[in-house]
Amino acid sequence: MVGYFFYFTALALPFVILYLCHLKTIAPFMHKSQEVWFDQNYDFLYKGFKTRHSGLYHYYFVYIMRRFVFVNICMGLYQPEYATLQIFVNIWLSVGFMLYLAHYKPFFDERLN
């Protein structure tokens, strides 16, 4: 029973983060008091990150989706004969993540990009 709770929580988490990051991208259109309240409550999600892109390009969402895809591949193809496919999927997901980092440069600090 607890396993189902964590499974559905893990399924919903990327979309909750996507929604919150999307709200941050439209923050300039909020009233100043709403923006201050939003920053006080959700600053930990985007502190140190550039928020000029839509929420889909935010670091945490891309990272969680990368892990989500890999875990689903591993769960669906868990037999030993699929081990090579799991390795290649992990490599390609990592290459895609590095391309994301190189193209979007999501951090304010250039040393981290």
Summarize the structure.
The protein has 113 residues and is an all-alpha fold.
Tell me what the structure shows:
The protein is an all-alpha fold and 113 residues long. The chain has four helices and no strands. The chain has helices at 2-25, 32-46, 59-76, 83-104. Helix 3 packs antiparallel against helix 4. The longest helix has 24 residues, at 2-25. It is flat and about 55 Å long. It starts with a helix and ends in a 9-residue tail after the last helix.
Keywords:
113 residues; mainly alpha; 4 helices
Give the biggest sheet: none
Report the uncertain regions.
none
- What gross morphology would you assign? flat
Nearest-angstrom radius of gyration? 17 Å
Question: For the terminal residues, how far apart are their CA atoms?
Answer: 41 Å
Give the strand content. under 5%
Helix percentage range = 55-70%
User: How are helices and strands ordered from N to C?
Assistant: HHHH
Q: Regarding quaternary structure, how should these chains be classified?
A: single chain
The secondary-structure class comes to mainly alpha
The total of beta strands comes to: 0
Please work out how many helical segments DSSP would assign: 4
Mean pLDDT: 80
